[in-house]
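FAQ: What does the model actually see?

It sees only this:
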Amino acid sequence: QVQLVESGGGLVQPGGSLRLSCAASGTIFMVGNMGWYRQAPGKQRELVATIARDGSTNYEDSMKGRFTITRDNAKNTVYLQMTTLKPEDTAVYYCNADVRRGQAFRPRNSWGQGTQVTVSA
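And it is asked to produce this:
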């Protein structure tokens, strides 16, 4: 089994910063693409950013310049540094990753349980 565990969410004032972390654990041969998604109340889950194993990144346009995704392959961990946060960034943030349990296994897409980020004065 593979688990993705997010941390780092919380309450922050507008203009503030937060850093989210997501660590993959369990039986892991290799972690491929990793990413962050978010879901605000009453809205569909949306892409925030993704990062490939080689470090190449992709961002949703509205988050470019404010959010930075990075990863540590040795720790099977992905990070999301969020700056200049706005009330509309309030959402549950979910980690996503493609994980191979062994060399003979295909990558399996997994989700974390989510971490709440609230931006409010």
